[in-house]
Amino acid sequence: MSEPLSKIPVGMKYYFGSQARLRRDVEDLAMAVFRGWSYEEIVTPTIDYYALFERGMGRSQAHRAFRFTDTDGRLLALRPDITSSVARAAATLFAERARPLRFCYAATVFHQRPRSHAEWRRETTHLGCELIGARGVNADLEVLLIAAEILRRLGLAGDYRITLNDVEVFNGVAENLKLDETAREHLRQLIDARNASELREFLAPYAPAEDCIAFAQLTRLAGKSEMFDRARHLIVNERSRRALENLEALWRALEALGLADSFEIDLGDVSELDYYTGLVFRIYVRGLGVRVGNGGRYDGLTANFGRAEPAIGFIFDLDSLTDVLWRRRGAQDAGDGGARLRDEDRIALFRSALRLREADERVLIEF
Amino acid sequence: MEREELTKLTIALAKGRMQEEAQRLLLRAGIELDETLNGSRRLTAYDRRGRYRLVFVKPADVPVYVEHGIADCGIVGRDVLMEAEADVLQPLDLGINRCRIAVAAKGPDDVTRNLGMLRVATKYPRIAAAHFGRRGIPVEIIELAGSVELAPVLGLSDCIVDLVETGRTLAENGLQVVEVIAESTGRLVANRASYQLKAEAMAELIAALGRASEREG
């Protein structure tokens, strides 16, 4: 028995009408901002070796990809991210180019398994940029300002929040507790879920009672500059302390640039530790229950492709952005305004159409 | 949408077993529901000061509403969260409705005798599969919607994985707890985006509920 053709696979959707126009406008706007910051567009292969993504994203993330085999039996994947491919290009194709490299893209990625129930799409478009070969607060600041500019130009100023963390804060704590890999992952999950009570129980065998309570506070350490003083009292190991200093320097700069209102420090954001090596951030917009973007520093990634160098980048999820803007703005008419053309004489009809098009006027041929 | 502007947070409450204790806890936290709610079939209510909108949904739907951000936070049992594998924050253990998720059978032998393929009846297929998976025991999960205790009695399964509060229902059916998988209590869960975008209101609610649940404990 054949399946009805009316059915669409789970996690796929059409865009049309004013929603499609909005989506296109958002994409164009983001790409223009990237260009404004001297980022060069890069188009990566839609299909690539699965091994690339396994190396680039880590096994647990790469596993979500659609996979199939090439004619020679090697495993291929529909790209589940763009960054892996850009990092490989930076280490190989652009090995000789002067640093830093600045790349941007607007490209679809595919996941056979969605990340969560609320993020159900299996095809999404990433608007992203990567700054490769630059380290330090200035590089971190550059990409944060790009993200903020895109949100502002989308009319979302005051309605977005970017949370900042440095994964080294967590890594320092975990290292200090001398956790094995399983325990470290469990600790990460508890902090990520802000589960303070289970975190205290989990830590009990590893640390004195007062330390447990202090670490459990990690889940609550969110806020603005006042947060740093509290954090410094609770977290004393060297590795975490250095990370806190970096974060604070970044924060001072954001404050000085008048952006502190839109940012927040959140030491509990430890979602993707295997991938990121320093700053991580997540972007939320009022009106949507899931993040619209995220990014961070991934200094370890390009080493996988033979050349270790610092790198930072982020993506906006175009579909989520379109969703939230669409809900806020409501449907908007494209307006007609175009010339409606009708003529019995075929040549006369199309001659006038061509003339109007030459002047960049919108035409509508009537039938 | 306009009402949402006035209201700081929407809270999803699990109907049924937990609802009464959750509402008592809310009351101790100074969140008093508009009286018109009592006995009515309305599915939403506001607190007296209009700060919170409460929606009453089935327990399994609480993480769904919260994960999508339709509710900013929710009150639901840990059992439901473990089963749903929902991507939500769990900032507070409220300590209400304390019970256990356990393996129960007619006797301990029923779980060890049939190691070739253990038949497990449950409302919690994921928790059951994960539990026996960790122990390397192959299982056939038989998913039931209710009255799970009947399954071993009638021979549908060797054991059950279910929520045990007092153990009375088990005893009445000639079953006993053979292994505790996890303790479960009512949890405050929060949407990731709301936790950041409505940070102040969220911190206020967490602090109030935290104080109220400590007084209880």
From TrEMBL, chain A:
It is found in: Cytoplasm. Belongs to the class-II aminoacyl-tRNA synthetase family. HisZ subfamily. One of its GO terms (biological process) is L-histidine biosynthetic process. SUPFAM superfamilies: Class II aaRS and biotin synthetases. Heteromultimer composed of HisG and HisZ subunits. Pathway: Amino-acid biosynthesis; L-histidine biosynthesis; L-histidine from 5-phospho-alpha-D-ribose 1-diphosphate: step 1/9. The keyword Cytoplasm applies. L-histidine binds at D81, I82, T83, E130, Y275, Y276. GO terms for molecular function: glycosyltransferase activity; histidine-tRNA ligase activity. Required for the first step of histidine biosynthesis. May allow the feedback regulation of ATP phosphoribosyltransferase activity by histidine. Its main location: cytoplasm. This is ATP phosphoribosyltransferase regulatory subunit. GO terms for cellular component: cytoplasm. Keywords: Amino-acid biosynthesis, Cytoplasm, Glycosyltransferase, Histidine biosynthesis, Transferase. Gene3D superfamilies: Bira Bifunctional Protein, Domain 2. It comes from the Bacteria. Residues 18-321 form the Class II Histidinyl-tRNA synthetase (HisRS)-like catalytic core domain. CDD domains: HisRS-like_core. InterPro entries: aa-tRNA-synth_II/BPL/LPL, HisRS-like_core, HisRS/HisZ, HisZ. HAMAP family: HisZ. Pfam families: tRNA-synt_His. This function is generally fulfilled by the C-terminal part of HisG, which is missing in some bacteria such as this one.
TrEMBL record, chain B:
It catalyses: 1-(5-phospho-beta-D-ribosyl)-ATP + diphosphate = 5-phospho-alpha-D-ribose 1-diphosphate + ATP. The keyword NADP does not apply. InterPro entries: ATP_PRibTrfase_cat, ATP_PRibTrfase_CS, ATP_PRibTrfase_HisG, ATP_PRibTrfase_HisG_short. Its main location: cytoplasm. GO terms for cellular component: cytoplasm. Residues 58-209 form the ATP phosphoribosyltransferase catalytic domain. It is an enzyme of class 2 (transferase). GO terms for molecular function: ATP binding; ATP phosphoribosyltransferase activity. SUPFAM superfamilies: Periplasmic binding protein-like II (SSF53850). Its EC number is 2.4.2.17. GO terms for biological process: L-histidine biosynthetic process. The keyword DNA-binding does not apply. Pathway: Amino-acid biosynthesis; L-histidine biosynthesis; L-histidine from 5-phospho-alpha-D-ribose 1-diphosphate: step 1/9. Catalyzes the condensation of ATP and 5-phosphoribose 1-diphosphate to form N'-(5'-phosphoribosyl)-ATP (PR-ATP). Has a crucial role in the pathway because the rate of histidine biosynthesis seems to be controlled primarily by regulation of HisG enzymatic activity. This is ATP phosphoribosyltransferase. The lineage of its organism: Bacteria, Pseudomonadati, Acidobacteriota, Blastocatellia, Blastocatellales.
